[in-house]
Amino acid sequence: MLGLAGADRTAPPFAHRLQEAPVPARSHSDAPLPRPRPRRRRAVVAALAAASLAGLMSGPAHAGGDRGPDGGGGPHGPADPALRRGLQALVDTPGGPPGAIAVLTADGRSEVYRAGTSQLGTGQPPRTTDHMRIASTAKAFSGSVALQLTQRGALGLDDTIGRRLPKLPAAWHRVTLRQLLNHTSGLPDYTEDPTFIAELTADPRRHFDSRRLLDYVAGDPLRFRPGSAYRYSNSDNIAVALMAEAVTGRRYEKLLAELVYRPLGLRDTSLPQGYRLPTPYLHGYAVDEPGAPEDVSTVLSASGVWASGGIVSTPQDLGAFIRGYAGGLGLGPAVRKQQLSFVAGRSEPAGPGRNKAGLAVFSYATRCGTVYGHTGNFPGYTQLAAATKDGKRSLTVSLTSQVNSSTNPRLLATLRKLQEDFVCRLLDRRKPGGAY
What we know:
Blueprint: H1 38-49, E1 64-66, H2 81-92, E2 99-106, E3 109-116, E4 132-133, H3 138-151, H4 161-164, H5 177-181, H6 194-202, H7 234-248, H8 252-264, E5 285-286, E6 294-295, E7 312-313, H9 315-326, H10 333-339, E8 343-344, E9 354-357, E10 362-366, E11 369-378, E12 381-387, E13 393-399, H11 409-426
Antiparallel strand pairs: 1-3, 2-3, 2-13, 4-7, 5-6, 8-9, 9-10, 10-11, 11-12, 12-13
């Protein structure tokens, strides 16, 4: 989540709802999207601040295992009926997401599970090529950039803010890149700052200067001595991206393209600045029963979350990315060992099983084995991307509403159990009798 994992319960509720918002330029539609009525748009943001998102299905529901990577065909193995039913039950749950899609890939073969719809009123099921806001799973992308630069010697995990970003507050100067990547930095979270929240609430589509987001908390002290505790902070990955820019002289967006998108063949992934989404896209909803779901896909500008959650991708691309990142693609043994050095801490929202925090990656130890990845949530979207240590198997689970411990803790518990069942399927750890 572009929010607080293991965070202070007194933090403004809006911080738990803020997440990333992105848009791939290559498929971006030039036609302006209809703007929500200002009064209604502010009402939605107010609802987010009050921690209430919900969704009601309208139109026919579709649940099934697609046999092809685009949701349209191709013999990619039989779908598991129990997982189909589980995903459908999640969508059918009161307050559940209008749509959901899970993609399991093993050795180049995929199973695609879908439930609900990509847009209410259309009956169109979610597809693996639909764009979506990936929320805090974008933090793994900034981790990939940082570790690739570390592998090349341009950055060091013990490099400090004081060395690479000396204009940031002196109180932060001893924080290291390693501590930023595993959320032990102690940096105050800018998404909790009252001024930031007020400006975003007044104009959700406001264009922020992404490289000045840390200014909102520049006068705040560290929350704790760096390295002494774990606390998820959206400020961490903003600082990571700024460090990468400082040592290369290149914009973070360019570094993503050169170090991540191209090597992994990600054609539908980008880091936008605005509120629009490329088409086709999964529509994200605020679900607040008994009212009708509110489409919040384009309510918020991505510029306010940037490297902490602003990337837009597709289930297909996200799976390819996490196989590469969790599999250590491009990393030598020394850097790889550091990437997979874990401390106590969970992703936000919590992923399946027992969570621990590595360098922009989490380990999820389930009853069937351990996978590595990241979760995220943003108004209208909830994400899990995980893969095996060898990078040969991956799982993505994407919902079209925001589900976390603040918005809907019961649904989150159900989701985590279902995610664990998908992990068991991915690892082929079926129990006798066909159950997981």
